[in-house]
Amino acid sequence: QVQLVESGGGLVQAGGSLRLSCAASGSIFSIYTMGWYRQAPAKPRELVATITRGGRTNYTEAVKGRFTISRDNAKNTMYLQMNSLKPEDTAVYYCNARVFTSNGWDDYWGQGTQVTVSS
Fold first, then answer.
1. What span, in angstroms and rounded, lies between the C-alpha atoms of 87 and 13?
2. Cα(first)–Cα(last) distance of the chain, in Å?
């Protein structure tokens, strides 16, 4: 079994910062791509950023220059540093990981952490 646990969400004023963490645990052989997604009320879940095991990153246009994704492969942990937050960043943020276990490759999701940005 693999578990992803997010932390670091909360309420912040516009212009503020938050740092999200996602820790993976369980019978993990390797983790390839990890990513952050978000879902605002009445909207579909959308990609925020991804990072490969080798550190290659990809961001959605709306967060470029404000958010930074990173990971610590030794700790099976991923981070999202969010600066200059805007009210439109308000959403539940989910982490995702493509994990290799004894059963092969599979995608796993965390339970989500709420980020609320007040204007």
1. 8
2. 40
